[in-house]
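Slide 14.
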Amino acid sequence: MWEFSINLKKENFDNASLIFNYLNSTVKTFKGVLTEHEENGYVSILVGVEDEYKENIKSMISSCIVEIICNKYKWNFLNKKLNLPIQNNIGLLAFKKALLNFDKETDRFIVKKNLVLERDIFLESFFYFKLAPLKNKWQELITLSNENRDYLVCKDSFIDLLKFLVDNLDIEEDEISVIKEKNSYKILLDDKIQYIENPLTEEQVVSSVIDLSPQKINLYFDENSQAITLLEKLFADRIVKSSLDNRVNNIKKIKLN
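Slide 15: predicted structure.
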């Protein structure tokens, strides 16, 4: 039997829970064992599968660790290092999300290249001691942003830079629909016919659309808003607008209730 342990500091319990939940169903599918325990300030996730399923589970563990570092660790890195004058919460969150997703494939490549799964991994140690090139890459992006903080005070300049970042994100979804009714938003992944979250605030809907980085956005709304205005500026020719009165004819597959 192949056994492997993933270890995180106790203060990063949320990340440990994400990893456990991500692996749980797959490990069960391969009739393996997955356990979690706390000891000496660490949360340890223990995986055990028969040797014939070793490569399948190693691939899943690798993907999980890559995504945790490229999302959770990078987000914390940005929050700690960025020093921007942006007062608008929607704009600031959108900017951070754009930086989070910028050149993400290279981020993933760097993590995967340095990731060796033998008997165990201590995730914080791996991040701090094995991923210097990744941290340097993130720091260059943050330094460039911080050094141009005065430039970002101007609203037009800020939008131009944010749009540049958004335009250079990899496309993650072919098509989504954003629906606004009263004071809440819904996002539908058209190819999966499901909502990703319900309801969403103005800050959440803008950051979620940036995360999804779609090729096409169907935008349905009963009235304009700060979030809709920002989405129109950032995604421009990718947006198809329509009033909610026309939604039945235009998107029959969407059930709002």
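Speaker note: The longest strand covers residues 173-181.
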